[in-house]
């Protein structure tokens, strides 16, 4: 992968859980790491479900390998948030493909 193709900056966010003074559990998303990435694949599919037709927007980002990223994390790119649905190691931990699905799409 050439560094010049990494034309996006994505932020990997991790959920943090806390209990406030009233005993109410809250969760927020905190930045874990910022990565330069390239869009390897951008696909939109329409499917019929119980509640009618739905559209799913999936994007695959390719970035340099970074340990510790899991499917429990999420991605922020250009102000939009995405759930991580797949991670794939490329070339013996040199690169990482992160497949995401847009939240609220």
Radius of gyration: 16 Å
Average pLDDT reading: 86
With strands numbered from the N-terminus, the spatial order across the biggest sheet is: 1-2-3-6-5-4
What does the overall shape look like? globular
How does this model look, in words?
The protein is mainly beta. 0% of the residues lie in helices and 70% in strands. The chain contains no helices and six strands. It has strands at residues 8-19, 25-49, 52-64, 74-77, 80-90, 95-102. The protein has a six-stranded antiparallel β-barrel with strand order 1-2-3-6-5-4. A hairpin with a 2-residue loop joins strand 4 and strand 5. The radius of gyration is 16 Å and the shape is globular. The two termini are 30 Å apart. 12% of the residues are buried. The mean pLDDT is 86.
List the helices and strands and how they pair.
Blueprint: E1 8-19, E2 25-49, E3 52-64, E4 74-77, E5 80-90, E6 95-102
Antiparallel strand pairs: 1-2, 1-4, 2-3, 3-6, 4-5, 5-6
Top keywords for this entry?
6-stranded antiparallel beta barrel, mainly beta, 105 residues
How would you concisely characterize the structure shown here?
Helices cover 0% and strands 70% of the residues.
């Amino acid at each position: 992968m050439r560094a010049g193709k990494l034309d996006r900056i994505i932020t990997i966010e991790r959920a943090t859980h806390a209990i406030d003074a009233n005993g109410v559990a809250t969760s927020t998303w905190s930045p874990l790491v910022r990565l330069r990435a390239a869009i390897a694949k951008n696909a939109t599919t329409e499917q019929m479900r119980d509640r009618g037709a739905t559209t799913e927007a999936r994007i695959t980002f390719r970035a340099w390998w970074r340990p510790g990223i899991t499917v429990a994390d999420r991605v922020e790119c250009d102000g939009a948030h995405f759930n991580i649905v797949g991670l794939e190691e490329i070339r013996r931990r040199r690169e990482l493909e992160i497949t995401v699905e847009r939240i609220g799409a």
